[in-house]
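Renewal narrative, Specific Aim 1. Our central claim is that a sequence can be written position by position from structural information alone. The example that follows is taken directly from our test logs and has not been curated for this report. It begins with the structure tokens describing the chain, in the order in which they were read.
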């Protein structure tokens, strides 16, 4: 039987200090999350990043989930971690996964701004909430509506028309829930990623 290769020395990989601090600030198994990101990033330099934690309530359970987006010079690295109960072992289990997408494959970066009371919008504020959507063609959403014609009296069936939207990951960031800094970090990451694709 062949010997198992030695595990990668993750201590030799340094993440940027502000990324490490953001992972620690999120407070969700920071050592595990940092190691998962290190394993995916490898020896590449992290140019920009975004750490987003969310808590959801599922009937009687509280579920925590963390997403780390890290852009290197060639790839978008996405790490997810969440926990759930292992019923067989009556214990908590954390699951962490990563996906690495070449920057050349990223098809779009969309930032949706939600602005309360737009009549009193303050220039430069960009609202109180954003949704960052990144698409690279793995998942697409199809929105269909009945097709219409210009004749208001027409009762014919004109079929359907719609749009196909690439929607591989979407993160909602609210200044009310997470603070203005989180909103600014999401916007800055979106600008950086947008500038790095399509070259």
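The sequence written for that structure reads:
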């Amino acid at each position: 039987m062949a010997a198992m290769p030695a595990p990668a020395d993750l201590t030799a990989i340094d993440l940027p200090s502000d990324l490490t601090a953001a992972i620690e600030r999120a407070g969700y198994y920071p050592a595990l999350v940092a190691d998962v990101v290190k394993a995916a990033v490898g020896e590449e330099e992290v140019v920009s990043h975004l750490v987003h934690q969310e808590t959801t309530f599922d009937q009687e359970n509280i579920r925590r989930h963390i997403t780390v987006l890290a852009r290197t010079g060639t790839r978008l690295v996405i790490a997810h971690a969440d926990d759930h109960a292992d019923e067989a072992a009556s214990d908590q289990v954390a699951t962490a996964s990563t996906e690495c997408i070449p920057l050349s494959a990223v098809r779009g970066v969309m930032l949706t701004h939600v602005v309360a009371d737009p009549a009193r919008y303050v220039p430069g504020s960009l609202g109180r909430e954003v949704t960052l959507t990144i698409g690279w063609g793995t998942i697409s959403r199809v929105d269909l509506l009945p097709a219409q014609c210009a004749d208001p009296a027409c009762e014919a069936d004109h079929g359907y028309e719609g749009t196909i939207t690439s929607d591989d990951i979407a993160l909602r960031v609210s200044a009310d829930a997470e603070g203005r800094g989180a909103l600014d970090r999401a916007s800055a990451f979106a600008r950086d990623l947008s500038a790095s694709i399509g070259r």
